[in-house]
Amino acid sequence: MNYRSIKDLNETILRELHVIPRDIDLIVGVPRSGMMPANLMALYLNLPYTDIHSFINGYIYKSGARRQFFDNSEYKKILVVDDSIASGSALIECKQSLEHLDGKYDFKYCVVYTTPEKENLADYALEIVSTPRYFQWNVFNHTTLEKACFDIDGVLCVDPTETQNDDGPQYISFLLNAAPLYIPGSKIGTLVTSRLEKYREETETWLKNNGVRYDKLVMLNLPDMKARQKANCHGSHKAKEYKSGKYNLFVESDLKQAIEINKLTKKPVYCTQNFEMIYDAESISYNIKSGKYLPFLRRYALHLRSYLKDLKSKSQLLRKVLSA
Fold first, then answer.
1. What are the helix (H) ranges across the chain?
2. What is the biggest distance separating any 2 CA atoms in the chain, rounded to whole angstroms?
3. Pick from 95, 117, 236, 298: CA 20 to 30 A from residue 103's CA?
4. Rounded to two decimals, what is the model's pTM?
5. Where are the beta strands (DSSP E) in 64-165?
6. What separation in angstroms does the CA of 23 have from each of 20, 26, 76?
7. How far apart are the C-alpha atoms of 150 and 129, rounded to whole Å?
8. Could you read off the pLDDT of 84-119 as tens digits, one per residue?
């Protein structure tokens, strides 16, 4: 499985920006996924941009205005941008919607990501990424989520606060009224949560009220919060279900648990704590080369440097006091 984040998308555009001709007059994004790369390219190339439907109706986006009618003589060379090609049907449909304007405009087509088989469908393809693949901007609407497992707290809804997590009335109120986070547009295969089985009714009520579609809900069959804390089996509980079925993705909120699930199952885990896909948590070389955990290492290094600096300052002060 291949995964690309928004950060990856931006870096790919910057790295390959040189392949885009500098005589382009206007950038046109294909809604919805193509709008983000189109906007980025327009910003980096200092060009106006619009969406494909506005373009057909003669409008572009202008600073300080949502839309502005444009003069046909002003823009002739048009770059149509989408995020990716998979089957190629979306790009073919896009070309068909613009074919009545061929001759009036010179259209070129650009995608950020393409499969090896469809590379020649676009005039400019910035990176080849084979399927199966997930993108950060559409992972929660992917058509294969029926083969995925999802955590609940920190993914579908916010985590409970320490006060709310009382295994009593406040927790029940949280379960029924938790603020939603990432509600998928597609049906989920299985929800796997460390919530206790005794809270199934409240959990199912919230899921129904927030439009979450799923096949199965797996909860932790322990009597109370103390038993759950003593068992400390969050990662292994989730990994057991993930490993037992024909799932190809687990979406987890906690990085530590995500790493544990990956180690136990050898399957990819998507973590909403850092919006990264964990493929092989046991491989030190992978983590270093991919840079997946470098942000955490950098923060740790900064904290350590600050601590050592403070320790040095205190040591110098202590020497002065002792020598006085």
1. 6-16, 35-45, 52-56, 89-98, 169-177, 200-209, 225-231, 234-244, 255-265, 284-290, 294-323
2. 90
3. 117
4. 0.80
5. 65-69, 77-84, 106-114, 124-128, 133-135, 148-150
6. 9, 9, 10
7. 25
8. 998 888 899 999 999 999 989 999 999 999 999 998
